[in-house]
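Hey L., structure's done. Input below.
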Amino acid sequence: MQYDPIKRVLGDVFNKTPFLRRVFYNLLDLLLLRAWHVHKELNVWAAPRKGKEQYILDAGSGFGQYTYYLSSMSNKWSILAVDVKEEQISDSNQFFRAIGRHNVFFKIADLVQLRQPNSYDLILSVDVMEHIEEDVAVFQNFYASLRSGGMLVISTPSDQGGSDVHGGSDTSFIEEHVRDGYNIQEIQAKLRKAGFRKVEARYSYGKPGQVSWRLSMKYPLLMLEVSKLFFVVLPFYYLFTFPVSLVLNWMDVNGKHETGTGLIVKAWK
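Output:
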């Protein structure tokens, strides 16, 4: 299925007021398991740095929910958020100005070309690399753009069923993906080749997370692809599935998984 048309519909609905956009961010944080895993890593990174100036790049910002989360932690942090989609950049800049977060700026940029040497203490890239063919070039740009000691955090599908691909005959659930998922050793090797001195990777979306993803994301998206009228049905659907998904998300983010359909990767310069 194509994800971008549904994202545009969601954007049209929740961009109407700053209040609705905040509600949207909170819903994404609760429903999206990847947000649980990413927040866990960001909280560890942020703990000793909240009172210090930090420079952060949100590389592939999408709706801007991770920039919102980071900018909520400290007003001493400067955040640049980039994406290739002009409408999302415009909407995000308007929202962040409206709520008075002037330490945040969104701009259009191609990660294959974006290189700002020794500029950032943290680079975050959430569900972006599966959309980019020239991944090694992007990893090299990330490395060059980090300051010494800086950290890169990546969330991306794995080759263990990421993008809902479990065999040779399966096709990616999201048509915009250029790869179905990374092998855990492959992505670590590519990051080391790009120059990173230390790389760690772990699986996310283990068995609890895979069930949660189907309940909270896959089935609703399939319904919306059939007809946008399912927006009316969704609140009643989530009334029954939401509590189950919350428990499954908690189990996934607090467990260790020998395999999983997602990867959380950290690398240091």
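The longest strand covers residues 146-157. Confidence is low (pLDDT under 50) at residues 165-173.

-- N.
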